[in-house]
Amino acid sequence: MATLLSPPRHYLNDGYGIKSWLLTRDHKRIALLYLASVTVFFFIGGAMAVLIRLELATPVGDLVSDETYNKLFTMHGVAMIFFFLIPAIPSVLGNFLIPIMIGAKDLAFPRLNLLSWYIYVVGGLFSLYAMIAGGVDTGWTFYTPFSTVSSTTQVVPTALGIFVVGFSGILTGLNFIVTIHRMRAPGMTWFRLPLFVWSSYATSLINVLGTPVVAITILLVAAERVLHFGFFDPSVGGDPVLFQHLFWFYSHPAVYIMILPAMGVISELVAAGCRKPVFGYTFVAFASLAIAVLGFLVWGHHMFVAGESVYSAMIFSVLSFLVAIPSAVKVFNWTATMYKGSVSWETPMLYAYGFIGLFTIGGLTGLFLAAIAVDVHVTDTYFIVAHFHYIMVGGTIMGYLGGLHYWWPKISGRLYHEGLAKIAAWIIFIGFNLTFFPQFVVGYLGMPRRYHAYPPEFQVLNVLSSAGASILGVGYLLPMAYLIWSLRYGRIAGSNPWGAVGLEWTTTSPPPTENFAQTPVVTWDAYEYPAPVETHVA
Amino acid sequence: MSEANPGGAAHPAHVVPTRIYYVIFGILMLCTYLTVQIAFFDLGILNTVAALTIAVLKAALVVLFFMHVKYSTRLTWAVVIGSIFWLAILLALTLTDYTTRAWQTFG
Amino acid sequence: MLPDAVEHHHPALAHQFDSLEQQKEAATLGMWIFLVTEVLFFGGLFLTYTTYRHLYPDAFAAASHELIVWAGTINTAVLITSSLTMALAVHAAQTGNRRLLVLFLIVTMILGTVFLGIKAFEYYSEWEERHVPGLNYAFDPRYYRHAQIFFSLYFLMTGLHALHMIIGLGIMAVMLRWSIRGTITPEYFTPIEISGLYWHFVDIVWIFLFPLLYLIGRHAHV
Questions:
Q1: In Å, how far is C142's CA from the nearest CA of chain B?
Q2: Which helix (H) or strand (E) holds A414?
Q3: Domain extent listing, chain A
Q4: Does the distance separating the beta carbons of A312 and B96 come in below 8 Å?
Q5: Contact between A381 and A406 (Cβ < 8 Å)
Q6: pLDDT-based confidence at residue B4 (cuts at 50, 70, 90)
Q7: S-S: C26 plus which of A158, A182, A407, C67, CB 3.0-4.6 Å?
Q8: Where does the pLDDT of residue C140 fall: very low under 50, low under 70, confident under 90, or very high at 90 and above?
Q9: Looking at the domain assignment, is residue C128 inside a domain?
Q10: Is C73 among the domain residues?
C-alpha cells in the first residue's frame, strides 16, 4: 500500500498565527474554536459532577454544606446543558461538516458564524464569573419565586450568561437554515442530503423558534430580581407557574436540540458501519422534523405537580406519548439498517450501537414519565435524573464521541489509535451504566434529587453510582489524551479511511479552505453503497 | 448554487407600484382611527375582539404589501405562517392551563 | 441581471456565494428567520400580558386608563407613516433613484426619532404620576398589586420596543451612509430591503402593543 501523504495545502496550514484563528471566517476553523471551548465547559461540568458523586457516596452531608451542594448541581446543570450539550454537536460537527456535506464553500454567513463563537465565549465568561463570585443555587431551572426573590446567589450573572449564549445558538441555527436552503451544490436535492444535515436542520428550527422565549424569560427574571416588577411573585399577584410555562416552552424542545444532532450522527455512523443505506431514509428525515415540531407541544409534562390544571396536564400527557413515535421510528430504522448489513465494530460504530441501546432505555423511561399517574410518584426523584442522563449522556455524549472519532481523520488528517479508542469506548459504556442504572432503582425507591443527604438504606446504590462515575471519568479522559496525541503522531488518514460514501469523503483530509477543488455536481443518493457480494457455498 | 439550478437564473424582482403603498397607508390610518373610536364604546367582550381583529388586519397589510410577502416565494410564506403558528402554540397551550384551573377536578 | 462575467467580480459579491441573486435570497431568508426569533421573543411578553389580563381584567383596565391615549395614537400614526416612507425608500433603491432613496431614509429616521421623543415624554409623565414600579409606584388601593403588573409589562414591552427602534435608527444611519456613497444600486439594494423588513417588523409590534396597552376599558369611567 502506498504511503499516504498529507495534502500540501489545507485549512489548518492556510495561515498561521493567533490572528488567523481568532479572525477566521472558515467554518472549519470556527468548529475547532468551538471544540476547544465546549471541552473546557465539559470539564467544568464534569468537575461539579465529581464533587456531587463524592458527596453522595455517604448518606450524610459531610463533604460540602447543603448550600454548596445546591450550587454544585446548579452549576453542573448550567455548564453541561447550555455550554456543552446544546452547542457541542451543532457548533463543532455541524459547523465543520454541513457546508462540505452539501457541497458548498462555507456557510451562508461566515462572519456571523465567527460572531456566534464570540457570543458563546462572552456568555461563558459571564457564567464563569458567576461561579467564581460564589455560584448560584437555584437549580438550572431557576424556578421562581426563589430565583427572583429569595436566593442570595449570583442569579443575574448566570442568567445573563445563559441569555447571551442563547443568541449564539440562535445565530448558528439561522446560519444553518439559510445555508441548507440556499447553498446546496448542483444536484444536491433535499432527498439526497445526508441524514445528519436533516437532523441539523430540524435542530436549527428548534433553536430559532424556542431560544428566544427562554431569552425573554431570563430577562423577566432579571427584571424581577433587580427592579422587583413582580411577574412571578405571588405576594404581588404574580404566578410562579407562568415562569415554568415560559421556561419549559424552550427547555423541553432544548432536549431535542441536544438529541437530534446526535441522532443525525448515528444515522451516518450506522450507514457507514454497515455499508448500507439507512433503512427508510425518507421516514428518518421526516421523523427529525416531526420531533422538532411535536417537541414544542409537550412542555407541560414538566409541571404535572407544579399546580397546572389537570385538564392541561392531560393534554400535555397525550402529546408527550405522541412525540415518542418519531424517535421510535428512528431506532427501528437504524436496527433495520444493521440487519443484513456488513456490520463493523470500529470505535465510532461501538458508540453508535451503544447509543441505540441506551437511548432506547432513556426514551422508554420517558414514556413512563409521560403517564401522569407514574410521574406524580417519581417527580423530583433520582428516576428523573437517571432518565435524562441516559438520554443526554448515554445518547448525546455517545453520539458526540462517535462522531468525533468518525470524522477525526477528516478534521485532523490523522488516525487515532484504534485499540486505545475501543478500550475507552468500553470503559465509558460500562462506567455509564454503573453510574446511572442504580439511579433508576434508587429513584423509584424514593430518593429525592437535589438533596445532599439521604436515608442510609440508599447508600449501596449510591456507592455503585459513584464508583461508576469514577470509571466514566477515566473513560472521558482517555479520548482527550489519544486524540491530541494523534495530531502529532497519528498515521496519515487519507481522504477516505472508512471507505464511506458522502461528499466529505471525496475531498482531502484535512480539506482545503474552500472545501473542494471544484464544486461537486451530485448525481447519487445519500448512501449509495455498492450492493454486498453474495457468497454461496457450492 | 441555488437548488439544482446551475444557471442561477433569477426571477426578476417585482417592483410594487407606489400607488399601492399609498392606498395601504390610507387603509392603515383609517384602521387606526377606527380602533381608537371603537374603544370608547362599551361593547363588552367585542371590544377586545374588534381591537385584535383590526390589529391583525393592519399587521397583515404591512406584511403582505410593505414587506412584499404577497410577491414572495413559498418559503417566505412558510416562514411567516410558521412564526404565527408557533406563537399560537405558546399562547394556546399555556391558556389551556389558565382557563381550566377553576374547573372542577375529578372526585 | 448582470452578465455572469461581471457578476462574478461584483464588489458586493461575497466569496461563498456564486451569484448576487443567491446572495440576495440568502440575506432575505436570513432576515426573515431573524424576524421569526423576534416574534417569539416578544411573544413571551405577549403571553405574560395575556395571562395577567385574563386573571386581573379590572386592574388592567384601570391601569390602562392612565396611559396617554393621544400620545399612543399619534405614535401609531407616526410609525405607520414611517413604514410607508421605508417602503418608498426600497422602491427608490430598486429603481435607481438615489435622491429619493436618501430623502425617504432621512424622513423615516426623523419619524422614528419623533416616536422616541413622544415615548420619552410619556415615560416622564408616568414618572410624575408615580406609575413606575420599582421606583416610585403608587396606585388606587383597589387594584394596587395587579396594576403594578400592568405597568411592569407596559414599561418592559414598550421599553424593549423602543430599544428595537433605536437599533433600527442605527441600521438606517448605516443605510443612509451607504446610499449617499453609491454602494446601493438597482443590482444591489438587498441591504435596504432587509433593513426595511426589520423596520416594518418593529412597526407591527407596535400595531399590537397599542390597542393591548392603551385601549383596554377606555369606555369605562374609573
A1: 22
A2: strand A414-415
A3: 18-506
A4: yes
A5: no
A6: very low
A7: A182
A8: confident
A9: yes
A10: yes
Interchain pair B76, C29: CB under 8 A: yes
Domain extents for chain B? 15-71, 72-107
For chain C positions 175-204, those within 8 Å of chain B (CB to CB) are 193, 196-197, 200-201, 203-204
The residue of chain B nearest to residue A185, with distances taken between CA atoms, is B1
Distances (CA, A) of A123 to A82, A127, B36, B88, C34: 10, 6, 44, 30, 20
Q: Residues C92-134: pLDDT tens digits?
A: 999 999 999 999 999 999 999 999 999 999 999 999 988 888 7
- ipTM value of the model? 0.93
What is the reported pTM? 0.94
Instruction: Characterize the bridge pairing of strands A491-492 and A414-415.
Output: antiparallel
| Out of C22, C37, C152, closest to residue A170 by CB | C37
Of A510, A515, A514, A513, the residue nearest A487 (C-alpha): A510
Angle at C173 between CA C172 and CA C176, to 5 degrees: 85
In a domain, C5, yes or no: no
Residue A414 pairs in a beta bridge with: A492
- Provide the pLDDT confidence category of residue B5 given band limits of 50, 70 and 90: very low
Fold of A18-506: Cytochrome C Oxidase; Chain A (1.20.210)
**Cβ separation B2–A209 shorter than 8 A:** no
CA distance, residue A359 to nearest chain C CA (Å): 30
| Residue of A24, A182, A516 best to disrupt the C interface, most CBs of C under 10 A | A182
- Could you tell me which chain C residue has the CA closest to the CA of B50? C211
pLDDT tens digit sequence for A174-186: 999 999 999 999 9
pLDDT digits (tens, 9 = 90+) for A255-307: 999 999 999 999 999 999 999 999 999 999 999 999 999 999 999 999 999 98
In this prediction, residue C11 carries a pLDDT of 84
Query: C111 φ, ψ to 5°?
Result: -65, -40
Cell of C141: 388601593
Q: Which domain holds residue C141?
A: 40-214
Q: Does B64 touch chain C (CB under 8 A)?
A: no
Does position B104 have pLDDT exceeding 80, yes or no?
Answer: no
Q: Is C11 a domain residue?
A: no
Q: What is the CATH number of the domain that holds C147?
A: 1.20.120.80
Which residues of chain C are within 8 Å of residue A104 when distances are taken between CB atoms? 16
pLDDT at B3: 41
Residues C20-42 pLDDT 10s: 999 999 999 999 999 999 999 99
Measure the CA–CA gap between A94 and A27, rounded to whole angstroms: 9
pLDDT band at C222 (very low <50, low <70, confident <90, very high): very low
C150 burial class (0-12, 13-18, 19+ CB within 10 angstroms)? buried
A323 neighbors A301 (Cβ within 8 angstroms): no
Per-residue burial over A324-346, b if 16 or more Cβ lie within 10 Å, else e, is bebbebbbebbeebbeebeeeeb
**Between A and B, how many CB-CB pairs are < 8 A?**
54
Looking at beta carbons, which residues of chain B come within 8 Å of C219?
Answer: 39-42, 47
Per the structure, the count of domains in chain C is 1
Q: How big is the CA angle at C96 (ends C92 and C99), to the nearest 5 degrees?
A: 65
The answer to whether the CB atoms of C156 and A220 lie below 8 A apart is yes
Q: What are phi and psi of A491, to 5 degrees?
A: -70, 150
**Average pLDDT, whole number, for chain A?**
94
